[in-house]
Amino acid sequence: ANGQTQFILGSHAQGFDAEGEVSATTLVCQAGSAIVFDYRILQRGCANRSESDRPCLYFTYAKPWFRDLKNLRSAQSILDEKLDAE
Question: Rounded to an integer, what distance in angstroms lies between the CA atom of residue 16 and that of residue 24?
Fold first, then answer.
């Protein structure tokens, strides 16, 4: 296996409790496929146990008011600095 992506379905919902056993859904797709998902969902890439590289492009978008304090612990966006400079 070359490191499939796993998602914890429903984990983006407010009030999700990750305590205890949680079931992950594995997504397998063809090379060159695009996966679109709410980036607040808990997800992970599994280990790449193959001899092949697994290049991946990961792009996120959020409204300026949204702060992801779970993954990005900074209280300030890098865009705030640019706006202040203008």
Answer: 14
DSSP H or E run through 25:
strand 25-27
Phi, psi of 25 (to 5 degrees): -105, 125
- Please give the model's pTM, rounded to 2 decimal places: 0.63
**Calpha distance 3→55 (Å, rounded):** 10
pLDDT tens across 11-59, in order? Answer: 887 666 666 677 889 888 888 888 888 878 888 888 889 898 888 888 8
Work out the angle at residue 21's Cα, subtended by the Cα atoms of residues 20 and 23, and round it to the nearest 5 degrees: 140
Query: Are the CB atoms for 50 and 1 separated by under 8 Å?
Result: yes
**The pair of three-digit structure tokens given for residue 25, joined into one six-digit string:** 């859904």
